[in-house]
Design brief:
alpha/beta, six-stranded parallel β-sheet, Rossmann fold, 14 helices, seven-stranded parallel β-sheet
Length: 374
Amino acid sequence: MEADPHVYHLRSSAGLYGAEYMILGLMPALARAGIGSTLLCLDNPYFDEQELHTRAHALGLPAVRVPCRGRFDFASVQALRAILARDPRAVLHVHDYKSAAYAWLARGRIPVVATWHGQFSSTPSLHIYHLVESRLMRRFERVCIVAEEMRAGLVRAGVPEDNIRLIENGIDTDRFRPDARPLARRDFAIDDDALVYGAAMRLTAQKNPLGLIEAFALVAARSPRAVLAIAGDGPLRGAALARAAALGIAGRVRLLGARQDLERFYPIIDVFVLSSLYEGLPLALLEAMAAQRRIVATRVGHVAEVVGDLPVDLVAPGDARVLADAMLGAPVGRTAADESLRRRVVERYSTARMAADHALVYREVISRHERAAA
């Protein structure tokens, strides 16, 4: 019996966000499934600290920094080639447009798998980068998507449909659970009897934190015990604080910043709110479901497919009043129905299931690659 391939995950990262946490969850799950992997962190020259590499090391995961001094650095290509040449049964798995470009230049005869994480073109330059990425994916052995609605766009870009695989995101259901040790509410000046609406997000336009604050202002006007707690950071932090102040609710909004203990955050909230304007498959939704929180979410991306007929309130994105009404209408207190939220994640969205699906793809491409080379 031939040995399993060794997978090299290549990521150019600007911080710790959904794609990064997906990789950090996938690698140990792959190891449990018998497939070793190494994280190759393509340096982002705009940041002194490479957070993904630091976090991987803290978790005990094999990780290597690949120096990169700008948008294109041929020395990075050479470094990748040297790493990949050491392993005759390597598979290169890329997770963003820059990694896809470097992989294409460095791959040699190594098979390449790409994951389309749900990149959204918020600027003209990003639109160009993602266009290039989709063109490169035509030449990769497999392209994994995290939501079914991504398939049509890739097919239009020329990616052969037979090469596309749907692999939905997964989370560590042992880490995210309703009985996890909660953070202390008092540490964030939240009363024990407060009604806490919570979100875990990057503070960017996509996640719509300003819209969430506007919706919460409507909630706060009708619910004197309501508090909004947001775990996460990003470029709109200052704007979020200013919006809360302008609406007169600054004293009832808590911005907790980026946290590595989100499993302890969810137990302190009563209702989880996803306010995104667009998404692929948001990990925060899965985490909140695994923690059995009551959920209000915008109907974006793969969200409706995930929750199906579960007790989740879905609303149209971008309408603060509609979101506020759903928040006010969300039942408070645990019920037997909440167990179905966790059960859905355990059955369909665990890291074990995600790793098993990826393992099939890796074994498929390496087997096909070796037959072609024989």
